[in-house]
Amino acid sequence: MIVDSSVAAGVSPAPTTQPARLPLQRFRVKRIASEVDRPLRGRCQTSAASPPFTTSSAERSIRLIIITLIFVAVTSHAAEVIPPKPAGYFNDYASVVSKEAALRFDEQLAQFERETSDQVVVAVFPKMQSDSSIEDYTQRVAQAWGVGQKEQRNGVVLFVFKSDRKMYIQVGYGLEGALPDITAFDITEYHIKPQFRNNNYEGGLATGIDLICKAIRGEYKGRGQTDLERHRGASSPFGFLVFLLVLIIFLIASRGWRRRGYRYSSFGGPFIGGWSSGGGGWSSGGGGFSGGGGSFGGGGAGSSW
Fold this sequence. Notes:
Blueprint: H1 5-8, H2 22-49, H3 53-79, E1 90-92, H4 99-116, E2 119-125, H5 134-145, E3 155-161, E4 166-172, H6 181-197, H7 201-216, H8 227-235, H9 239-256, E5 262-264, E6 270-272, E7 296-304
Parallel strand pairs: 1-2, 2-3
Antiparallel strand pairs: 3-4, 4-7, 5-6
């Protein structure tokens, strides 16, 4: 039998207690928290010391976009060709109509300018020499040619691109009220297009020229002369009389002689212009087209066939 000495002495034994575990648990929690927090602090310090990745990548993307846009703009303009200003009102570079029809159209448009002062030019090309849209390209060409008088800006150009099967009417600022976009679209879509689809280019062009002239007739008061004739008449008092004499001689001679005045351009087709006789300054069968500095703001419409 084992007797506790404290009991034998009459003293109550000291209570037996287990060691407290709470401090150890707290220590473990703090240790785990510090281990988790250490890499987070390292990441925060690293990110604070160096620029954010998203910012630098965004800057690189913006630079890449700007360089790409500049490259596209340069290459597109390098591939584009602006044809030189034509010599006549009607210019068939694709040889879609007969020579007789070309002369007739040219004289019709020259007479229209004498009566109204409005300049209407027709240009038929084999294909469009640009990668941009037909609206933008034809506007730049019409602006470069300066069709219409500078003060009145009363010019219209009908562009036809045979291989592309596209056409567009560019209207100068001064005639947008007489020939609005809806009217230009109506002419190309419902009057020219059906005839082009049947390969009747002469009929389609004749209809288009007639409707364009009817739409803008009376917009400005005519001066009885084309812009080229007016400048020639100012330099010589006998210029207009000489022109009439040459016109009469040409009409008489054309009945028995082969028509002259055609030569081939870099576009591969014949166009009116370049024939002269005496001192009358005859050009392009009907007085000669001379752009007066007209401007274009994108008015007009077109169609494909």
